[in-house]
Amino acid sequence: MRKPINFYIANVLARISRRLLLLLGRNATHFPGVVALKICPNILKYLEKPDILIGVTGTNGKTTVTNLIGDILKNENISFVSNSYGSNIVEGIVVTLLSSTKLNGSNLKPYGVFEIDERASIRIFPYLKPDYLVITNLFRDSYRRNAHYEYIRDLIDKYLPKETTLIVNSEDTISSFIGRDNQKFVFSVAPLPGETERRDSIINDLYYCPKCDHVLIYDFVRYHHIGKVHCDNCDFKNLAADLVVTAVDYEAQLITVEEKGEKFNYRLIGNNITDIYNSVTAITTLRQLGLTHQTLIAAFKNLEITATRFETVSYQDYKVVRLLAKGQNPVGTSRTLDYIRHNLDDYQATAVIFVNEDYWLKERPMEIENLSWLYDADFEYLNQPNIKQIIIGGKRTAEYQLRFELAGIDKSKLFEASNQMDTIKLLDIANLKTVVILYDTTNIPESKQLQNKILEMFKEVV
After folding, report:
1. pTM of the prediction?
2. What is the radius of gyration, based on Cα positions, of the chain?
3. pLDDT tens-place string over residues 47-99
4. Which residue from 399, 394, 388 is spatially nearest to 434, judged by alpha carbons?
5. What is the pLDDT of residues 176-185, one digit of tens each?
6. Whole-Å CA distances, 165 to 138, 161, 184, 186
7. CB atoms near residue 41 (< 10 Å)
8. How far apart are CA 141 and CA 38, in angstroms?
9. What are the chain's domains?
10. What is the DSSP letter of 379?
């Protein structure tokens, strides 16, 4: 393909800007793409793609799934390019492809694994046609950006290349029916022995049958609209799964995966049900690339959830837990709060520190979202007797305090700090055993600082 002169100018200047930003200690995952697109708006058309291209999109879990796939490919010494630590919109995709191509735009990598923002499909799919597209799930998300799940579902469906093979979640009957004419591989987590349903979530994004508009019958609810469902008025129901998690042994830290009648035991990485979904998503994807279960089982022995999402440090009987609770994302936050409710209930005398969107107020005030999302998130899950304190830090403490009060949490448990780092001054450290820090993607460095300081405070108590 003959390339225009502005492609070469954009290519060179974007590479120079990336090199300069890296020298300055910046990530350089977005701005060089801005430069390139300003000069050559259709630069994606001229950058060659990896031989096999895997896209990962969805409301929640796409970063983790992208990282899991990348970690396993790396473990197998398979060369690939990925934006797993960078921007997942079109600018970030451009930067990633620049790192895997020559100056003339020719490809250097056999595989590409790209996290793709679900809204960016309108700009990406006309040029970047994945061989495989993973859709982790679809929920309502940021009110300012993602409006309603139907908007995102229809956007992906409209621009989805017909030749793309989809990898979808059987229990998510919103995303699994995208691309009715596309080939699909379907994964599932069956109702597990002893598993408790979660029918108390505020959000259920799929109440009516998308085929005939009758009220759906939920036979099993894992959380929100994720579960086993059918319509009594038509034939709508979950897609049959190709690969199923049939059992989880939390004591032995194993999950059992069944495919074509054969069962395989994988190491469990993370005790949250969302971690299990992320694992089976990655397994299903890599099976389509030809990796054997034996190869994947060996690779899973070395995998860990990234410490920016979940981390526990301890000293004697004291624990400090960091959990990502994505701001402006009610379902992501609810899943974290539910994890605290059911997995940390054996911890005595717990405090929860909630640090919020200071970053947006300081640096991007015009992008602040209204806080209606707080009333979709299940803050009621923190109304537990073992949670002795909830400390809110930042500029939006009044809004969060009101939401906690409406969740029925006693006012005597609620404390406010004017900034994130001052939250630890309000800890009744002598009477606590565990502190949980809930933070946003913009608060990762501060959450780590808080964790280290609280651990030192526990050491002083001992």
Report:
1. 0.90
2. 23
3. 999 999 999 999 999 999 999 999 999 999 999 999 877 688 888 999 999 98
4. 388
5. 999 999 999 9
6. 18, 9, 6, 11
7. 12
8. 29
9. 47-192+234-300 (3.40.1190.10), 310-461 (3.90.190.20)
10. G
